Amino acid sequence: MLRSTPVYSTFGNHERFVAQDLTQTGDYFNMFSFPKNGEAGGVASGTEAYYSFDFRNVHFVVLDSEDYASSPAALTPMITWLQSDLAAVSGEEWVVALWHRPPYTRGLLHNSDTETNEINMRQTVLPVLEGLGVDLVLSGHSHSYERSYFINGHYGLANTFTDAFKLDLGDGDPAGDGAYRKAADAPDPSSGAVYVVNGSGSEFRPATLDHPAHLRGLLETGSLVIDVDQNVLTARFLTGTGEIHDEFSIVKGTTCPFVAATGCNTAVRGKLTMRNAKWGWKWKGGTIDTTEVGDPTGEADLAVCIYDPNGVPLLGGEILHGNPLWKPIKRGYQYRDRTFANHGFEKVKIKTGTPSLSAVVQVKGRGTLPPLPAALPITAQLINLDNGKCWSSEFTMPRQNLSDRFLAVIP
To answer: Are 239 and 378 within one domain?
Structure first.
């Protein structure tokens, strides 16, 4: 496999026994050829000790956590290059960074609170990476598997880590608490990253894996397998026995799902209007379970989407959890934005309960309407993106379907 597979590696503490990263001499640098002149994408670093490359829509940054991280001053040339390299990333690219010594770990013989290089990388490199939109950080050194929450902004010791640094309290597993999400398609400053220590490819060393930044700590051999499908990055820890013992996804962009959801809750009443760059949808006369819709002020990522007969999104988008414009109301939640900044939403109101308790979904928005008269049927949906639960109205018989207005009512 190695004869036909491109291999990129990062300089570690054992490589220092036979090579020098500051001078790029010794066996390690004789064995490998890395793109120091930007031959594979990215900005030329001028050294094979740290460099970058592109693979499809992923930009990889390979850093040096050895002699270059021995002090903040020693980090200066790498930091200067890193800033220019990440500033040049454009389009809908993912940013993945990797180096040897992890910024967060409590493995056997290794503690990121006490080792100088780990502290320097955390305090000096992480603010640059996060400030320029890194998505995933990979490292080794500790012979274990540790995986963080979706975090941002923690550069201190472990005892200073709190839930305030977690942008999502969930596990990131699409089959669990739901994927982690980023609003922007392109690299977005301080929008969250996952940190993975995968030092158990060949062996694991028994240890108490209890760093508070980490959600997972596994003592078993395995590899991290990463798949990127456009705006979705999925990482799986594949064990030496062929099992998947950890999985998380990061989804970028807040557009609607490409395909309308199925198996949704329906209601006996509904109304959809589109006119003068305004649109509205009301769903009423059904059941909305509190546990199914979730809490958008906490962990639930919701979307309101209007689909054409082929399931192509026409209007709407996602409103991610924690958006400060989400507010709790009696038996539900409400989103209000008079600037219409998020997909044109002005109002999204959700009241849970049964038909007799007036469970309702009410949406108002503004923006570019689809061409009218509209092709039918048109489907309007509220979707919990984490658990797949949805509430839907299908409009087949409009009262008005003209070149300047659309009105449909159920029943």
So the answer is: no
Closest CA to 246 of 184, 200, 281: 200
Same domain as 296, residue 236: no
Residues 65 and 210 in one domain: yes
Return d(Cα 55, Cα 71) in angstroms, integer. 31
Q: DSSP letter for 288, please.
A: B
Alpha-carbon torsion (69, 140, 194, 155), positive or negative: negative
Predicted pLDDT at 272: 98
- Closest to 228 in 3D by CA, of 252, 200, 246, 257: 252
Same domain, 335 and 237: no
Q: Write out the residue range of the structural domain in which residue 95 sits.
A: 15-252
Q: Is 2 exposed, middle or buried (0-12, 13-18, 19+ CB in 10 A)?
A: exposed
Final residue belonging to a domain, choices 252, 286, 305 = 252
Overall average pLDDT of the 331-346 stretch? 96
Number of domains in the chain: 2
**For the residues of 165-191, what is the DSSP string, one character each?**
GEEE-S---TTTT--EEES-SS--TTS
* Average pLDDT of span 24-33: 96
The reported pLDDT for the residue numbered 168 is 92
Any domain includes 4: no
Q: Which residue type is seen at 90?
A: S
pLDDT tens digits, one per residue of 318-335:
999 989 999 999 999 999
Residues 6 or more apart in contact with residue 389 via CB below 8 angstroms = 265, 289, 292, 293, 383
Q: What is the pLDDT of residues 132-176, one digit of tens each?
A: 999 999 999 999 999 999 999 999 999 999 999 999 999 999 988
Nearest residue to 148 (alpha-carbon basis) of 59, 66, 222, 216: 216
| Average pLDDT score over residue span 292-299 | 93
CA–CA gap between residue 298 and residue 213 (Å, rounded): 19
Q: What's the pLDDT score for residue 77?
A: 98
| β-pair type (136-139, 194-198) | parallel
- CA 246 and chain centroid, separation: 16
- Residue 190, sorted as left (phi over 0), alpha (psi -120 to 50) or beta, turns out to be left
- The b/e string for 42-62 (b: 16+ C-beta within 10 A; e otherwise) is bbebebbbbbbbeeeebbbbb
Q: What is the largest CA-CA distance in the chain?
A: 79
